[in-house]
Amino acid sequence: MPVSRxxxxxxIGLARPLSSGLARAGAPSIGARLLxxxxxxxxxxxxxxxxxxxxAELELSHGxxxxxxxxxxxxxxxxxxxxLKEGNKAAATASAAKAxxxxxxxxxxxxxxTSPLAEDPQGFTAALQRSRVMRAMAKPRGRTAPAAPPPAAPPPAxxxxxxxxxxxxxxxxxxxxxxxxxxxxxVEVRTLDLAADPDLAPxxxxxxxxxxxxxxxxAAYGRAVEQALRPHLDWADTVFVDWCSAGAAFLTLVDxxxxxxxxxxxxxxxxxxxxxxxxxxxxxxxxxxxDHVRDLTAAAVPRLLAEGAPRLSVIHNAMDLSSYRRxxxxxxxxxxxxxxxxxxxxxxxxxxxxxxxxRRHDDRFRLLLVGSGLNSDSSPAVRHYHGRLEQDxxxxxxxGAVRRVGQTDDVxxxxxxxxxxxxxxxxxxxxxxxxxGAASGAVPVVxxxxxxxxGDHGARTLFPQEWVVGTPEAAARxxxxxxxxxxxxxxxxxxxxxxxxxxxxxTVVRDDFDRLLLDDHGDGRP
Length: 526
Fold this sequence. Notes:
The chain is of the alpha/beta class.
């Protein structure tokens, strides 16, 4: 029997304060369940979506991954589709943006030890593939003329290749690349930080207006973007954009003409909405830093495998590893190192568990934590993890079993104390700190990153098999084995350093960048 509207409104009037009260009493999941049950009985599309979204936001505000997150964001997308069908593009894109921000909220994907997208990428993003608004936004807008495919046509006679290197407030992974091509005789380099440029900074943000522009709205904004970007695109033969996020999406709002566009995706972008809103018909090459990240991204964004998609390739991060090979301190053999602990995904509690297991056998083992700690203000989920980590560390730190050195500009110096370098993360794109530790002569022990452990690629395919373990117990066994004697430890560390330098040093990886960016333009030697 249909429920009368008056009765529904009365129920909602009771349910909303009750669910909020349950959340304040420490039971947000029960409060959310109440709203979800009510949503299931509401026939009106808009009201159903509102209740589902409220339930999801209630759990997110308490650091929990909503049980009905997919249903909530899909319900909001359904409302967006109706608005688009009615011709209301502005409201449709605003609703779709709301759905995306809910679907890719940091709590479910970045601030915990699991992610619904990593567990089921096709299932989690299925509603995006069905959505009328998302299909309209992803529709290829193309370019007036295609860029020349590799091997690319040379630039006009008498001048070098013009390479524009773009980032948006994060150039951390660019110095070696930029320096290499600035010194190359056949390349002229310009760099562009979209967040620092006074003309571009106000334009290069805002999910809603980028989405609206993609479906044919925001004409004035589109003209402003065109006017601001055109001089840069007209100058460049090739644009290399680091991070497949807001800056890359912004760039694809404009037809690049014959300018070749290369975008690099690291890892976090896969767990964001940005790859779902950019026009890949205007991108020639999409570069990943690991095969496992490429696999997951392509599964979550299936149009990357469709006809007309950019070329997909994998090139490891640029690292100068030669400076890391230094003599070890005498006590390094029994010192575990974890470099970078500022994200929950690094899961330092896993390292603490390894330490506990080791100290049952030998209390000489210590753990050195290098880097800034977690920002507990980032979200309730981070705050919960931070609290548990501090409890773990309190007793161990007091006894000297754990030492924190904080942020340092001298990582090679810090690694002189480390005999075993750990990667305890649930996800990584490449894990530069682990490779730097290996280059220093520390023995690598790598957790089989859970986000990728069931895929075709992951830690076990990126690194030598003996480096990778599945559990803290297996990690402890490996460490006990390689540190049983000083000779065995030194031998294992030497082998790790040789492998790291031969596989990932910039002197090796730069050839891959030359093949990507130069093709026939030079021999890759400045």
